[in-house]
Prior knowledge:
Blueprint: H1 3-20, E1 39-44, H2 53-61, E2 91-96, E3 104-109, H3 118-122, E4 128-130, E5 136-138, H4 148-152, E6 159-160, E7 170-171, H5 177-181, H6 188-192, E8 198-202, H7 203-216, E9 236-239, H8 258-270, H9 275-300
Parallel strand pairs: 1-9
Antiparallel strand pairs: 1-8, 2-3, 4-5, 6-7
Helix pairs in contact: 8-9
The structure holds iron/sulfur cluster (3 copies).
Amino acid sequence: MDIRRRDFFKLTALGSAALVTGSANASEHVADPDYDEMYGVLVDTVACIGCRKCEWACNDANKLPTQELKAFEDKSVFQQHRRPDAKAYTVVNQFASPVDPDKKFSLKVQCMHCNGPACASACIVGALQKTEQGPVVYDAWKCIGCRYCMVACPFQVPAYEYANAVDPQVRKCTFCFERITQEGKKPACVAICPNEALTFGKRGDLIELAHSRMNANPGRYVDHIYGEYEVGGTAWMYLSAVDFNNTELPKLTSQPIPDTTETIQHGVFKSFVPPLALYGVLGLVMHSLRKDGDREEANHG
Ligand code: SF4
Ligand code: SF4
Ligand code: SF4
């Protein structure tokens, strides 16, 4: 990347954002998007065997530091809970199943590619965008390193390259954007999955598939497709035998988060609130949205 161009952005973007107030948010929303026609992935945690091949394939496809595939057979990593970071855009965690302790429960986590991404909404220079194909993509050239996206994301996904002193970037799952849109391939993690725990397709078709799996296998899954409605819907969705409240996927309302973050952000720029205060405000919003998720579930439960 041309660092001088990026430095220019760093010097000008915050000031420009304050001047243009309401239009500071550069995340462009597609008019009346048909999310059912966008790409998504259905993660069937019942089928996931925790083999970690998806982790290797992701590292390989994204040219992240990695080891040979065999090294990913090491299951000792499951002793610690892991999160995606700047060197691993997806990780699999494994626990004893809360329903049957003799069984394992494995959960692959990565960016959810939300229909209304809070990260894009919080980004004042439009470095993160929801594409019309579905993936939420990142443009390092535009990024000024403010890290508002990290605070805004309800899934705590975007990671920052703190160890890169020269040109640190925000990192997250790319949904293998070029592979799927230009090469006509499946995402690398989906392509390697040996047990059909990952299904790639149009979001609407995946929701139908999820319902047909639940109907065909009574008692196999809880009656909940995680991501169908959470935060207005996500491109990556999950099926599970375990109540999602017992997983690391956060309890969230069906309200899209950008509705909240954009309002706050515009108010912040109008009032010239310093960036540190914005971190605090966004953090409080995320905290309260999680609480609302608890309440929404109690009301429906
Ligand atoms: S490759 Fe498939 S089965 Fe293996 S851990 Fe990843 S999602 Fe699960
Ligand atoms: S999961 Fe987080 S990083 Fe991914 S699209 Fe949603 S808000 Fe953005
Ligand atoms: S879609 Fe691509 S970038 Fe995202 S987790 Fe799968 S392999 Fe990694």
